[in-house]
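Q: what sequence does this backbone want?
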């Protein structure tokens, strides 16, 4: 079996992962209502991940928030060479590889499970048939507009629901396997 690629992401009920201008204020506000100490499975998911693969736009957003929050290896995808700040260059690299090239290389380097992050990036991996599972945490809000999690697909992508969880502070978490 090849490397497993997983999505773990929060969306509005209408499927947006950020406002059009990139703002995550709605997500921060919702997260502040969560029960203290409840991370909705994030830490245990992160423990299962060898490499985080994110799009350039997500990378820029994380950088803009201040201290780099990740200690695991991160690959930033862009069609251009992007500048990685010296402070994080030990664990963060950039790549112009296609999703399949990247998965193959990381597998050869020993990775077992990848975390794929960013809407456009997830869409590219999905369209290449390279996403294995998705954990989507639905935040109880309709944003009306923003950066979508999903977009046009080359064909239908059938899913199998493998877990669902409702949190009493209003989040609903759905875990799907992509049927291959
Ligand atoms: N709600 C959440 O849980 C959550 C999670 C993650 C991100 N976000 C938010 O989502 C927004 C970013 O998502 P997004 O959909 O706009 O973009 P994204 O996927 O983060 O980044 C898109 C960019 O990634 C590069 N890229 C992706 N795949 C590539 C490939 N195979 N080869 C070359 N380049 C590739 C391209 O960069 P170039 O244009 O440089 O070529 C593309 O424009 C941010 O606002 C972020 O804060 C929210």
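A:
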């Amino acid at each position: 079996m090849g490397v497993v690629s997983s999505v773990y992401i929060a969306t509005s009920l209408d499927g947006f992962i950020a406002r059009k201008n990139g703002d995550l204020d709605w997500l921060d506000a919702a997260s502040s209502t969560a029960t203290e100490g409840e991370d909705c499975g994030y830490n245990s998911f992160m423990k299962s991940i060898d490499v985080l693969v994110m799009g350039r736009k997500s990378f820029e957003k994380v950088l803009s928030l201040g201290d780099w929050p990740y200690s695991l290896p991160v690959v930033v995808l862009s069609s251009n060479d992007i500048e990685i700040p010296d402070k994080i260059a030990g664990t963060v690299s950039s790549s112009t590889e296609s999703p399949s090239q990247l998965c193959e290389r990381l597998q050869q380097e020993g990775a077992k499970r990848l975390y794929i992050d960013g809407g456009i990036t997830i869409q590219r991996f999905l369209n290449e048939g390279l996403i294995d599972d998705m954990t989507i945490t639905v935040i109880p809000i309709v944003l009306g507009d923003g950066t979508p999690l999903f977009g046009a697909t080359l064909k239908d992508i059938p899913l199998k629901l493998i877990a669902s969880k409702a949190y009493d502070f209003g989040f609903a978490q759905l875990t799907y396997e992509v049927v291959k």
